[in-house]
Amino acid sequence: MQQLDQAYINGNFVALKGNEVIDIVSPVTERIIAKATLGNREDAKSAIFAAHKAQPAMAKTTKTERIEMLMQLREAVLAEHLRIRDATIEEYGGPVARAQWVSQYASQCFANAAQILKDYPFSSKAGSATVVMEPVGVAALIAPWNSTAGTLCSKLAYAIAAGCTSVIKPSELSPLQTRVVTEALHQAALPDGIFNVLIGRGTDVGDEICTNPAIAKISFTGSTQTGKLVAQSGINTMKRVSLALSGKSAAIVLEDADLPSAISMALNSAFLNNGQACVSGSRLLVPRKKLELVISIVKTLVGAMQVGAPHLATTIVGPLASLAQYNRVQHFISRGMEQGATLITGGLGKPKGLQTGYFVKPTVFSDVQNHMDIAREEIFGPVLSILTYDTEEDAIALANDSDFGLQAYLFSSQPEKAARLAERLVAGTVLINRITPDLLAPFGGVKQSGIGREFGVLGLESYLEPKTIVLE
Ligand code: NAD
Q: Tens-digit pLDDT profile for the chain (472 aa)?
């Protein structure tokens, strides 16, 4: 059995001082597949020290040198994309198509950051002043379990583009993926200390990096609840904080949409990553007069979806990542039924023939009212709520009546009209007739979905600090 008991500090894999050992359990077999040691506060301090020592030299690197580093990282991660894919499938049950996408995206984000960096002017004029954009300093990159390779690599890419060294803290629930990704990053042979990686609990490693004065910036992706703690911990040392948080995205099908294609995309978005995606379109808003037709399409499409082993190419919905996730989803399905929503497919318990593993039935409710828990809270599983509207005004109001505002989807046969409606949706991103993002554009949320943007120019600037120089 694999033992994972090292951190990556100052260019080397080193033994951890922490001594808490956790089991990594396969979501398919429920058997222990690896044991991982968690770092402690001392380990975090060593990682921060290494990043802090490397920061002055990193800040002085030229654009060309940083682009070179990014392209080395891209090659190194690309070379290992199959191992990254397999670890994603094995550790949290990511279905193969999704795991494949994430592993390739992990390498692509270095190329994207290089492209943004190439054209970015670090100096500009404002009145008589010159404004110089400088690296903010050492960045703490904190990642959730549901997108380990993608989050690690995209955050690291933009930190490097800006000239920042980093301390990366992936989730304690993804040590296998972390190890594989870190081994790939190591192959890029960057100067020591530019990035340092350790797994640990939020309460010690997380807290140390959020309070240590040597950290200048926190780029956090995770739940809204933890994001608030991170922001509070960081404020005493005035850290710059970006928060990419939870979502409850609305997918609006307009009356003129091609229903089979719109519903198919909406379901793929709702069940993306087994429903464990921040951008999951978990509220489907449809015209009341089309509800019956929508329900019949949903039943057909969900009925044809393969639920099963994540490594099979035919699987659309794999297991949830953990027993805790399984229980969470069961709780929300019960709440939906208790609060009066109509179950149209799926429901409580495991699918037939899948009694071992954290498998759930892809579940869809109709007659959902926007005040119900299943419409308001992020479930983080394959559970879709269908709500109805009478007019486009109602649709916009319903979509915006949410604590969250990460991503929204619009489906229509009149894209220009949909683009006008998009202006009225309160969300960081609106996708029209598609469910895949543009990775060169800024990404982030409004309201309880976060603060700040990642990717693109704004993503780069989130690791920069402007300095104004005014000459007499
Ligand atoms: P989480 O908030 O439980 O944990 C995220 C990270 O924070 C982990 O590495 C964890 O160890 C760390 N952490 C916990 N307590 C901390 C503390 N006090 N100080 C510092 N770090 C601490 O989230 P999760 O369950 O791992 O991930 C799922 C959540 O992430 C969902 O809500 C999902 O919507 C969100 N998410 C958002 C995006 C986005 O881009 N908006 C992307 C992926 C996931």
A: 899 999 999 999 999 999 999 999 999 999 999 999 999 999 999 999 999 999 999 999 999 999 999 999 999 999 999 999 999 999 999 999 999 999 999 999 999 999 999 999 999 999 999 999 999 999 999 999 999 999 999 999 999 999 999 999 999 999 999 999 999 999 999 999 999 999 999 999 999 999 999 999 999 999 999 999 999 999 999 999 999 999 999 999 999 999 999 999 999 999 999 999 999 999 999 999 999 999 999 999 999 999 999 999 999 999 999 999 999 999 999 999 999 999 999 999 999 999 999 999 999 999 999 999 999 999 999 999 999 999 999 999 999 999 999 999 999 999 999 999 999 999 999 999 999 999 999 999 999 999 999 999 999 999 999 999 999 8
Chain centroid, CA 405 distance in Å:
14
Q: Are residues 295 and 203 in the same domain?
A: no
How far does the centroid of ligand 1 lie from the alpha carbon of residue 96, in Å?
Answer: 23
Which of 146, 323, 439 most suits a substitution to test ligand 1, by most atoms within 8 Å of the C-beta? 146
Q: How far is CA 261 from CA 274, 284, 305, 432, in A?
A: 20, 14, 15, 13
Ligand 1 midpoint to CA 220 (Å): 7
Q: Which CATH number characterizes residue 13's domain?
A: 3.40.605.10
Q: How far is the CA of 179 from the centre of ligand 1 (A)?
A: 19
Ligand 1 atom nearest to CA at 449 = 41
Which atom of ligand 1 sits closest to the CA of residue 209? 20
Measured CA to CA, the distance from residue 41 to residue 205 in angstroms comes to: 5
Q: How far is the CA of 245 from the centre of ligand 1 (A)?
A: 7
Please give the distance, rounded to the nearest whole angstrom, from the Cα atom of residue 355 to the centre of ligand 1.
Answer: 29
143 and 16 within one domain: yes
Q: Are residues 154 and 25 in the same domain?
A: yes
Compute how many other C-beta atoms are within 10 angstroms of the C-beta atom of residue 371.
Answer: 9
Sequence-distant (6+) residues with CB within 8 A of 420 are none
CB-based pocket (< 6 A), ligand 1: 142-147, 169, 171-172, 202-203, 206-207, 210, 221-223, 226, 229-230, 244-247, 278, 378, 380, 406, 445, 450
Q: Is residue 161 domain-shared with residue 60, that is, in the same domain?
A: yes
Question: Which domain does 237 fall in, by range?
Answer: 2-245+449-470
Query: Do 236 and 256 fall into the same domain?
Result: no
Crossing angle, helix 259-270 and helix 291-303, to 10 degrees? 60
Global pTM reads 0.97
**Which is the closest atom of ligand 1 to the Cα of 207?**
19
Which residues, 6 or more positions from 194, have their beta carbon under 8 angstroms from its beta carbon?
51, 54, 58, 69, 160, 165, 166
